[in-house]
Amino acid sequence: MTTVHIPALLRDLTGGAEQLDVELPAGETVSVRELLRTLEQRHPGLWARLIDPATDDLVPHLAVFIEGEPAGMGLLAKVGPEDNLFFLAPIVGGA
Q1: pTM of the predicted structure, to 2 decimals
Q2: Who wins on pLDDT, 58 or 92?
Q3: Which domains are present in the chain?
């Protein structure tokens, strides 16, 4: 089961859930985009908050990580049935 970890700012759309499990067929992979479309059906509004309509890509302040590694292909990156997916905002600041 693929686990999607939900950032705090999106939990109002998931009933407060910190993570969502998505069942994928054994051995199959889907793109991050396909996974988000599935989640949008279960939790309307996620797509609009994650995807910039002008670019049809992730909003500029978010990055996607799969199994702790940056998904260099963004929405085209492949997610497997046992993967963990995270959406993270960049960390800024310091001296």
Answers
A1: 0.88
A2: 58
A3: 2-88 (3.10.20.30)
